[in-house]
Write a structure and sequence with these properties.
Layout: H1 4-10, E1 52-56, H2 62-72, E2 77-81, H3 87-99, E3 106-110, H4 114-118, H5 140-144, E4 147-148, E5 151-152, E6 155-167, H6 168-173, H7 183-195, H8 209-219, E7 224-225, E8 233-236, H9 241-255, H10 267-275, E9 280-284, H11 287-293, E10 305-309, E11 322-330, H12 337-346, H13 351-359, H14 368-371, H15 374-377, H16 389-400, H17 410-425, H18 431-448, E12 452-453
Helix pairs in contact: 8-9, 9-18, 17-18
């Protein structure tokens, strides 16, 4: 889900992830999907005498998705409310986890936030409730992002395989005849456009550290090693050569003013996208929907965007990476976990909801029933002037994605990386020093939270 990719990063850090806090919620009531029926539902309940499962989610088309589910089920009904997007919802959920009451039965979480709640025993393993029955519907990477060993903590819905969006008019004006296939070609094109007096080729925004992290992983970095079966120990490695190379690469382009350093998802940034201020946008499969909703691709910018595979650090060893993606998890406070699991696994999994999701560009669906459908594969994307972006770019990227290992303190990590990117853009540090300082900060923090750093 698109907008929250930034909201969950730049919001104030809200953490309760020390090992002393790992007691979780238990079965002490929560919203009470059957013990006390929730009544503050945004949607209509179709079967009044059926158990109700309280769901927190922010997808724009949730009203339609919930109605689809409720109309198809007589044994359970969804009571949906929007508790906020991204960090707003996470803060409320964390408060409920800490208080051991007030949580929903099912909560929408981005993939990189799952471990932080899993470590608090705030989420339920769905494998006893049929999760593995639907495993075949998802790629290896999508499933890995919601799993820990043989345990499954959420049902994947939306993903963000990354690619390179570019302005065809800017490329044509400055003689860029094809999109760069490698980051070396990207840097050469950025220098060429700058020398000709053109706009920034892209940007190194501090408020999207998830993008930088993805490119670090693409280069071969493994920022974290963590297994929920061994809560005490964590591996942290962000001062490796791959991370240093990535930070130095973008800092160099920024210092030479070949790219910008503006925050993304702001009014000014969107205006720049409309006006051709940036030649490229390194983003994910949900971006066309976000940009269209923000007014990009209409009026003077209509028909001027195309998409290409994400440039590679090593063309001989391509790596697919992901930005964003969200899933439905069952909380430990759900009193009827079987009913809640039926909702988590079945909500946004029916054909009508998935079709509405991708056609309205609300989600990039992870369900293989969509990814393998002729209609989705051959869809001509209006934002890309009729390009078959799903078939040519996004589906191959999603199917090649192998998943990632996230830390149990993602928000803190993102805040520290964001601070280093600000310094890099200001010329106040180098990529090598930024990586070392980031390593030291994360190790110190992890130890203060009770972890043993391997």
């Amino acid at each position: 889900m698109r907008l929250t990719k930034t909201l969950s990063v730049v919001a104030p850090v809200v953490l309760a992830l020390g090992l002393a806090a790992c007691s979780g919620g238990g079965d002490d009531g929560g919203s009470g999907s059957t013990a006390a029926k929730p009544t503050n539902c945004t949607n209509k309940i179709v079967k009044e005498d059926a158990p109700r499962v309280l769901v927190w989610a922010w997808y724009p088309n949730m009203a339609k998705v919930v109605d689809n589910f409720n109309n198809q089920h007589t044994d359970v009904q969804v009571c949906w409310t929007n508790a906020g997007q991204g960090q707003d919802e996470y803060s409320k959920f964390q408060t409920a986890v800490s208080a051991k009451k007030g949580a929903p039965d099912v909560v929408m979480l981005e993939a990189d936030q799952l471990v932080g709640f899993e470590i608090q025993d705030a989420l339920v393993d769905l494998s006893p409730y049929g999760a593995n029955d639907v495993k075949k519907n998802f790629s290896e990477g999508a499933w890995k992002d919601v799993s820990q060993g043989d345990k499954v903590y959420a049902a994947p819905i939306d993903g963000g395989p990354m690619a390179l969006i570019y302005r065809t008019d800017v490329f044509a004006k400055y003689g860029i005849t094809k999109p760069p296939a490698t980051w070396a070609e990207y840097a050469a094109d950025a220098a060429k456009v700058k020398a000709a007096g053109g706009p920034p080729f892209g940007d190194f925004a501090s408020n999207v550290p998830a993008v930088t992290t993805a490119l670090m992983i693409q280069k071969g970095a493994t920022p974290f090693q963590y297994d929920l079966a061994d809560k005490q120990n964590i591996g942290i490695k962000v001062d490796d050569q791959a991370t240093k190379d990535v930070l130095n690469y973008w800092a160099d382009l920024s210092t030479k003013k070949q790219i910008g350093k503006e925050d993304q998802f702001t009014t000014d940034y969107v205006a720049g996208m409309v006006g051709g201020k940036y030649a490229t946008y390194v983003s994910a499969a949900w971006a066309p929907g976000y940009l269209t909703g923000a007014g990009v691709g209409n009026g003077s910018s209509k028909g001027k965007f195309a998409v290409a595979p994400l440039p590679q650090w090593d063309a001989a060893s391509p790596v697919s990476v992901n930005w964003g993606g969200s899933a439905f998890a069952v909380t430990s406070q759900a009193s009827d976990k079987a009913a809640a699991a039926k909702v988590a696994l079945g909500l946004y999994a029916d054909e009508a909801s998935l079709t509405d999701g991708w056609k309205t560009q609300t989600i990039f669906p992870l369900n293989q029933s969509v990814l393998k459908s002729d209609e989705f594969i051959n869809a001509k994307v209006d934002f890309f002037n009729g390009q078959t972006a799903n078939k040519d770019i996004y589906i191959p990227a999603e199917n090649a994605y192998k998943g990632a290992v996230y830390s149990p303190f993602t928000v803190y990590y993102y805040a520290q990386l964001q601070a280093q990117i600000v310094k890099l853009n200001a010329g106040q540090t180098t990529g090598d020093k930024a990586a070392t300082d980031l390593q030291n900060a994360l190790v110190t923090y992890a130890k203060s939270q009770g972890f043993t750093v391997k």
